DNA sequence: CCCGTACTACGATGCTTATCGTACGACTCG
DNA sequence: CGAGTCGTACGATAAGCATCGTAGTACGGG
């Protein structure tokens, strides 16, 4: 087996394993407007995005905080790539644990954004 | 401008109208284990239930608080019937605003309860 | 080796919330 | 009327959380 050492950065981040993800935690993570917006952008793109890609109405420290909440609740996966920290939705894990939930949530968020002004 | 109506003998309760219900509020309401449990029982029964029907691991004041959060977020509808206060899921409103969401949430909660010990 | 970029860690702050107990109001039934 | 049941209101408390600024660490490129 190709013991491909995947560039073991000294900076790695604690993620919950699939079985540790709790629905309450996911809902709490998504109940914040800033975090919901992040997740919507990640889902729209379909690819991992760096933190700095997002233009959020909060400071950089607060942005870090929100990304940590999303990671610790199991909604996103984070890993470093050079100086950039890449963020990706944990679609596989969430779809396995809670089939259909993520799509319903994203659809609901989209409908609400359409009704009101993208908020 | 609101000519403060005295509201003399009324025991009626403020509910958000359908259009005021916000996804973030609903998710926040359901991110508490006690409230999620209440909603699951309401959905399982399919009918309105009195507050006292629930055997929750919190005090009576706290129970009142949780029911109020659910009502103000638009998840349940409450009305008095004699001394009892009846609680019913706002299925029609939620399904109209966020089609499929409530069912996905309930299914997700059910699966999680199965995996772990009914928690 | 130094500098700029990307992000974090820490401490502070003010707001929200989950919790409780106690005292009270509304209703029903004797 | 009086007692019991059901639920509320209020005040207190402790914890949580969203927010910020500042100072610092890791990495990549000149």
UniProtKB/TrEMBL annotation, chains A, B:
Domain HTH arsR-type per the UniProt entry, residue ranges: 15-109
Keyword entries, A-Z: DNA-binding, Transcription, Transcription regulation
GO MF terms held by the record: DNA binding; DNA-binding transcription factor activity
Pfam families xrefs: HTH_20
CDD domains in alphabetical order: HTH_ARSR
PANTHER family the UniProt entry points to: TRANSCRIPTIONAL REGULATOR, ARSR FAMILY (PTHR33154), TRANSCRIPTIONAL REGULATORY PROTEIN (PTHR33154:SF12)
Identification of the protein by name: Transcriptional regulator
Organism from which the protein derives: Streptomyces pilosus
């Amino acid at each position: 087996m190709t013991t491909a050492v995947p560039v073991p950065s000294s900076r790695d981040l604690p993620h919950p394993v699939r079985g540790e993800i709790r629905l309450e935690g996911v809902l709490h993570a998504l109940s914040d407007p800033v975090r919901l917006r992040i997740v919507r952008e990640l889902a729209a793109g379909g690819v991992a995005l760096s933190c700095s890609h997002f233009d959020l109405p909060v400071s950089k420290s607060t942005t870090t905080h929100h990304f940590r909440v999303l990671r610790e609740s199991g909604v996103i996966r984070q890993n470093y790539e050079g100086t950039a920290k890449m963020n990706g939705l944990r679609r596989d894990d969430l779809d396995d644990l809670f089939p259909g939930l993520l799509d319903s949530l994203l659809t609901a968020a989209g409908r609400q954004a359409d009704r009101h002004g993208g908020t």
